[in-house]
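dude i think i finally got it to work??
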Amino acid sequence: MFVPKAFRLDDRQQIAAVIEANNFGLLVTAAAGAPEASHLPFLYDPAATAAGPQGTLRAHLARANPQWRDFAKLAEEGFEALVIFQGPHSYISPTWYGGGPPTVPTWNYVAVHAYGVPRIIDDAAELRDMLDGMVALHEAEEAQPWPTAGLEEGFMQAMMRGVVAFEIPVTRLEAKAKLSQNKKPAQLAAATAVLEAATDPLARQTGAWMRAAVNNLETKASADHEQGNPDKRQG
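look at this
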């Protein structure tokens, strides 16, 4: 992913939060020269391991989905899979900047790309644990969460045979928060206010990210001012 310095997101906690809040990702592989893609919910453990210094992703495919057969080929050839997590995003009109240098329409967004070689999970207990975790995560806000424990064991085993679970030790993360940080502070603040008042939830979420960018710029400007003022440095 092309990530200019102004838009680079390095904070590991923020990156993990983006993945967890937008965990319906896109798995992309190209083991035989032809790209394959599947839309899947993922679990993310940010803890570093020897194989996955950037954490571990876990998910499952339908056994009928041939993409899982790419995994062994990727490992043999030393290629990685890519998982894309799309965060908040919104169109930005030039009129929202409220003056200043000329500009053109653009699109602001937050995205994370994770890379690693998938490994199939063959252990039945590990597969069951992953499926239980996925269900528990997405049932957590229900008034009466649906438990996998209530399923008849034979039925559950049959369902498990119909999927292929896998994990991806993440070797690298690319994270981008394109939020008009390259505009004048007044322009960024003006566009932020428009999105914060929008009716579209995605636009408001983008506005929240942009508000954080505004606050960061203001904090940095204040710190730079104090460093350049000897009276303030002396207290």
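The longest strand covers residues 81-92.
im so relieved honestly
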